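Entry 0007
Protein: PepSY domain-containing protein
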Amino acid sequence: MAIRWPLLVRRTHKWLALAVGVQALLWTLTGMYMVAVHIDIIHGDHLVRAPAATPVDVASLVAPSRIVAAAPGTSEVRFQRLLDRPVWRAETPDGARLYDAVTGAPLPALSKFQIEEQARRIYAGEGKIVATRLLDIAPVEMQARKPPYWQVEFEGWNRPTLYLSPTTGELISRRHALWRVFDFAWMLHIMDYDERSDVNNPLLRVVTWSTFAMALTGAWLLIWSFPRRKRKKA
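Output (structure tokens):
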């Protein structure tokens, strides 16, 4: 039985178009959103105010070498402020630790009250805090960051949320509604429905090659549709 190539190619093209058509539409819509909204807005730069520069009386501070001696294995000591308090931030084998820069005493983990005060200083908006939680399990929007950390949510239509370190009070990340929409659109765009980060996953490769095959069969049908001159009989 002879193969009817036009019919076979037409059916292949039809089923490929049906299979990848929805994903092609999602690629278009999600791509439009990711281009339309400026990346700085997605990153939430507008949610955080720049820290104010404050002079420091170096003579009143303990030497960094004292912090290194108190925490063996420290790889770095950096000066910073926590709620107007001068502190040394030490990178120890067990993670970042804070030490009072005047006395050299280690500081305990921050309380809920201190975290909320720190969040208010960081946040550039005017909304009030509506929820503060110490998380031991990472939410979907923070899968790349290992807990624990504090989640501080402010009021507002876009649900601005800051994530702070429980030991140093430093800003880990910020999230808001437009970022969450972007994250969902990115998941649909790259077709990684688990970690939302693998841009070369098997499902995406299958659909991409299926789309390429659909284009090839469509081109073949287009060429086939042109009338052909019949050769004259000798």
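Curator remark: The two ends are 30 Å apart (CA to CA). The mean pLDDT is 89.
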